[in-house]
Design a protein that fits this description.
Layout (H helix, E strand, L loop, with lengths): L3 E10 L2 E6 L6 E3 L1 H6 L7 E3 H26 L4 H10 L4 H13 L5 H15 L4 H10 L4 H12 L4 H10 L2 H4 L4 H14 L4 H20 L1
Antiparallel strand pairs: 1-2, 1-4, 2-3
């Protein structure tokens, strides 16, 4: 990098400016606030330290813009957000600063995210403890928070009742098969959702018994 660097292009698009410096192949996105504060315009000459500082500030602003957009779409765990920002090639310093700021504001909270995500999952279809903990960890929730959330929501739950609720949703589909085939499919399905063999067996037998009694009447 030379000591003097020229702004060869400054264009506005999609709500921000794009600055192309001499000797560079790619323009960088710069917020309107940075453009005005630094009085940027085509043709001006900057020193290497000035360009470096501008690039750091621009990356920080762009990183925050992406965070605002992502959180506007849905809630994220801290780990999820960091991973997405890293994939977008933001530097670790920018990622850490922006994430820390949003944690401080209370807009990023793994405990809240875990509880909300777990409740939504259970509402769609009940699951067992191991499934729920793994589900939250897959969303990059720290293990201690995942375990705590699981115990808070399922700690007092009867696994057989969870199995019945989950299996009842698919019962018509399974009962199109012979009993033993249906039983195998039900056990496999419940096992994948973190329900143990004993609870799966009790749930299947209960629903089969209910169906038999209904047929008798």
């Amino acid at each position: 990098m030379t000591d003097s660097i020229k702004i060869v292009s400054l264009k506005f698009a999609s709500g921000r400016f794009f600055v192309l410096f001499s000797g560079r192949e790619k323009a960088i996105p710069v917020s309107e606030e940075l453009v005005h504060r630094n009085r940027l315009k085509e043709g001006i000459i900057l020193t290497a330290p000035q360009v470096g500082q501008l690039e750091r500030e621009a990356e920080l602003a762009e990183c925050e813009r992406i965070v605002v957009r992502l959180l506007g779409l849905r809630e994220h765990s801290i780990g999820e957000l960091k991973t997405k920002l890293a994939h977008r090639k933001f530097g670790p310093d920018s990622v850490q600063k922006v994430v820390a700021a949003y944690v401080k504001k209370g807009l990023l909270d793994d405990a809240h995210f875990a509880l909300h995500s777990a409740q939504a999952l259970i509402a769609r279809n009940p699951v067992g403890r191991s499934y729920l903990t793994a589900y939250l960890q897959k969303k990059q929730v720290p293990r201690d928070i995942a375990v705590h959330t699981t115990e808070m929501l399922l700690g007092a739950s009867d696994e057989t009742e969870l199995a019945v609720l989950s299996l009842r949703r698919r019962w018509r589909t399974y009962r199109q098969f012979e009993v033993e085939t249906a039983r195998t499919k039900a056990y496999t399905y419940l096992g994948r959702r973190g329900i143990g063999y004993s609870a799966a067996k009790a749930a299947f037998d209960r629903l089969l018994n209910e169906e038999t009694k209904a047929d008798d009447h």
